């Protein structure tokens, strides 16, 4: 295993692709630790610690948190992860079967597939806005950490501007993740979206 990895690093093109992919993954993991503006980081950590004591893996949020790499319950900028893109891809794949215009696009080859990819990106942005709004509303309402002693104080400032900034931040981060995944697919090793999951 190590000899195969060492041989891969000796090939200049493969080494460049491996290091590029590793760099993007490191950036993704760093973003999973940067809190969203407006979130009380201390209160989030208190609630996460209390949830871990109560076995957070059994809750629905614990399961979704696992798929976001631990970023969801930490309320970081990459909290939504790649989930809006995956959902948009599934929706578009189902719509291709139902809508004749999309089916015709799929049959057009590379140009049609590029158009469907563009539609997937637009739908990803729309889903990211919806999911970000839902996440902020859930955190603000105290239902993100229902048994936490400071669960209602996760977002201390309840102004509309704080909410808008948080939603924009989470949506922008999702767009950045989508872009990083496409960069890995184009310049790195493997499917970028799968790598970032």
Labels describing this entry:
197 residues, mainly alpha, single chain, globular, 73% helix
Strand content: under 5%
Main β-sheet, in a few words? none
End-to-end separation in angstroms reads: 23 Å
Tell me the number of strands.
0
* Mean pLDDT figure: 84
Query: What is the H/E string?
Result: HHHHHHHHHH
Radius of gyration: 19 Å
Low-confidence stretches: none
Q: Approximately how much helix is present in the residues?
A: over 70%
Globally, the shape reads globular
> Count of helices?
10
Explain what you see.
- There is one protein chain.
- This protein is mostly helical.
- The chain is built from ten helices and no strands.
- The protein starts with a helix and ends with a helix.
Quick description:
The protein is mainly α and 197 residues long. The protein is built from ten helices and no strands. The longest helix is centred in the middle third of the chain and has 32 residues, at 110-141.
Secondary-structure map with pairings?
Layout: H1 2-10, H2 12-31, H3 41-53, H4 60-67, H5 71-74, H6 83-98, H7 100-107, H8 110-141, H9 160-187, H10 192-196
Helix pairs in contact: 2-9, 6-7, 6-8, 7-8, 8-9
């Amino acid at each position: 295993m190590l000899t195969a990895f060492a041989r891969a690093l000796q090939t200049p093109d493969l080494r460049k692709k491996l290091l590029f992919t590793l760099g993007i993954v490191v950036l993704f993991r760093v973003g999973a630790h940067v809190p969203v503006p407006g979130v009380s980081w201390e209160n989030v950590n208190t609630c996460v610690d209390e949830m871990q004591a109560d076995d957070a893996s059994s809750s629905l949020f614990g399961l979704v948190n696992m798929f976001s790499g631990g970023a969801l319950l930490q309320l970081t900028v990459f909290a939504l992860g790649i989930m809006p893109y995956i959902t948009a891809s599934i929706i578009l794949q189902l719509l291709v079967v139902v809508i004749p215009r999309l089916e015709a696009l799929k049959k057009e080859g590379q140009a049609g597939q590029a158009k469907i990819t563009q539609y997937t990106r637009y739908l990803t942005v729309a889903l990211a806005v919806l999911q970000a709004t839902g996440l902020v509303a859930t955190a603000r309402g105290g239902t993100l950490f229902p048994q936490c002693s400071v669960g209602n104080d996760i977002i201390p400032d309840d102004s509309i501007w704080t909410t808008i900034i948080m939603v924009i931040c989470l949506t922008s981060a999702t767009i950045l993740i989508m872009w990083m995944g496409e960069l890995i697919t184009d310049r790195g090793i493997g499917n970028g979206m799968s790598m970032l999951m």
